[in-house]
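Support case: user asked for a sample of complex input and structure output to validate their parser. Sending the pair below.
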Amino acid sequence: MSLDTKIKNLELDLFSMGELVIKTLAEAVKALETRDVELAEVVKKKDGEVDKAYLKIDKDWFELMATEQPVAKDLRLATSILQASLHLERLGDLSVYLCKTTKEISNLPIPESLHKIIVEMGYMVIDMSSEAMESLKSKDIELALATANKDKEINNLYNKMLNEVSNISGNKDLYTGLFRLITCVRTLERGGDHAVDICELTAFLVSGEFREF
Amino acid sequence: MNSIKDLTKTNKEKAPKEIIFLCVLYLSISIAIITLMTLIFDILSTGSNRLFSDYEVGLVTKQQINNPQDFLTSLDSRDPLKAGIGPAFVGTLWLMIIVVFTTFPLGTGAAIYLEEFAPKNKLTRFIELNLTNLAGVPSVIYGLMGLAVFVRLAGFGRSVLSGGLTLTLLILPVVIVASREALKAVPDTIRQGALALGATKFQAIFRQVVPSAIPGMVTGMVLGLSRAIGETAPLIFMGALTYVNYYPDSPLSGFTAIPIQVYNWIGYPQAEWKNTSSAGIILLLVMLLTMNSIALIIRNKFEKDW
Amino acid sequence: MKGVTLNMENKTSSKIDLDSVFSVKNVSVNYGDFVAVKNVSMEMYKNKITAFIGPSGCGKSTLIRSFNRMNDLVPSAKVSGEILYQGINLYDQNVDPVQVRRRIGMVFQKPNPFPKSIKENIAFGLRVNNMTDNLDDRIEKALTQAALWDEVKKDLDKNALDLSGGQQQRLCIARTIAVEPDTILMDEPCSALDPVATKKIEDLMQLLVNEFSILIVTHNMHQASRVSDYCAFFTTKATEDGRRTGELVEYNDTKTMFTNPIQSLTEEYISGRFG
């Protein structure tokens, strides 16, 4: 296989992984929206496929680097593909988290207004992700810029959520604090995941094999 | 369709042709070798009588015990039993010395000039073409030229010097061509390597290229020399003597050489002369073989794997 | 020359603040009426490795050979334009090509040691340059600099042709640096060597560049990307009469050249999609 074919295949793999991730994410948001625990259960299981796609790209990229030593545009493309696949894998994890949340809140009293906001955010993320992948696919820097700008709207929704939570509670300061803490806790929890990822890299470095811890 | 089994199948159709062809080849080489061996055997058997064994005269008397030394050191004689090759041997040595001391500087000098310095123009090409032609000129022509130029014009007389110079002219084209080949065989990268170090063209040629070519030049020289000592015709034409009963003691002495002596002896009617001339041929063969071996040894020893 | 800005027809981008060794201005090299390479203008810098890359026949070897006047050996070769070496026009009438070659050494494609001992190989250059004081010390120093001393110190009298290809090439580098040039030109120095020997020569270049300016012609793009600081890409273009002439396409620092070249032709060549 020539360098051209290898890198084209890698690109195709990335975009099909992108489609898979975005479709899964859409279903996860749908499950959250309709509070459909069964659907959530089904969607959650799809994460395995995402991980598989990610590992394949990772492996092919590694082989490409070892055998073809791409330079210039090829090097930039290969690097973008690897990094994009990593981000897609994270987006896949996001779907799993949404499904878990759908289950966890199914028997809890969630105010309709908050539920609306979170679903809206979900769709916004789907929208942005698919546009981002589209910009990468068509190498459209305008679209990439426009998409990146939409992040502001997501930030706005986050703040709206914070306001809603503290307003509903009646104890604005306490709930603002609690909300901040909870998001912080979630961020730290993700930090642990990143550390695990680095540990996986250690294993790869030593043994030469990709392995999920 | 070829199958993998074809690999193990012997192709029997071709075999007879191959065998016939090989037989033809063996036959050609055997004819050449057998002829040569017969000649050598004949020479050795007739010549060894004069060199080593008791020499029989008539049917009964053993008259004289010979040894190689006698043959090498004796003067020529009217008596085949006493005739030795001494003066001719020394004459040939004189010729060799003169040829070496004139051919080597002239031959290598001309070769170095033509190969390294001469401009690549029509004149150079003309000279090159003529050199090749000269190498093919019959040797008697050189004899005539030696007679005209060295014997008469230069006034050296019918001396060993005239003879040596004539042989020099004869082998010079061969030696120049061989020396040029030796220089050509030195890769251009050697010249470039020397020049790139800041050597002048002169330094590059005389300190790197020529020393690397010396073994090849010497080989060419030795082969030329061995051709020279076997030559008879040009020496006879320029007037070498046939009966010499003294050793040449200066370049201007009259002389004879081994091949002339042999040629002379073999013309006499008595049967014993046949043994004597064969002994002379053996000596010539030994000298030629020695020189060719020297050339071979030099070539093998200094042959470079560039 | 300080603060040179490279900007020739947008072929280069970087602004550089370095000492220049070679300043090439509109140089063309002809063999008879055949133009091997034309209109090259570029600066090369002191204590840097500059690599010339490009397909066969693009004139990179021709050009490097005009930098130490080795082209003089080809009677029909003619260099036009200016090659300034530390400010002096190498093709000026008063310039002695022998002195030029002494200051600008050259290592060739195929290792070409003289068929003599290791010691004599280095002594030759020293002798022709009258540098025979402390001969043994100079020989040791050159061999040490060329990373060959430890391998050959016990048999300096051994014939150089008995060394391995890689050792022979390092010996050629040693004899070049023994005469203390300022610049070393290398014309595909590793093309006849195996990867291990190549690696040694490349490592050696990284050491030598502290003392010398190095110009290397290479067919191996990855070698150029590994060893060089600056990189010039040449290509051939068909002229009106159908013959091919070498041209400089892009000259840039190596990092830019191999990650984000300016010219699409460079991009195609270095990523192996040429032609």
